[in-house]
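Problem: given the chain below (132 residues), write out its structure.
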Amino acid sequence: MAYLPQNEGLLQYWLLLLSIVSIGNSVQSYLTTSYTRRVYSAPDTTVTPLHARTFGTYTALASIIRLYAAYNITDPVVYQLALWTYIVALGHFYSEWLVFRTARFGEGLVGPLVISMGSVVWMLVQWGKYIR
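Solution.
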């Protein structure tokens, strides 16, 4: 299908899938704080609508970069930008859990940690396949 990325490999489809799911997450962040509260669930942590919208805005920006990477996976600059979105997300989630203690290890945090870590590893391992 012409609507799907045209290069070989699965990484581009992973980036596309996560972009679509993340755009949905961004939209819901503007509508409710419920998902954001699941991630930042430590006691005495307050999630405001502003916090949820800020989280949604970053997620939308990262999703757009990842979407570009899905369709331009052999472009080294776009690939690096997409990789950095996962590195920043991974650093953010780990720091909120282990440094700032606003996130608790549980259902709301496991998904973002696994996805960001897995994506960083996958993109680093596949670097030579897509970037020459």
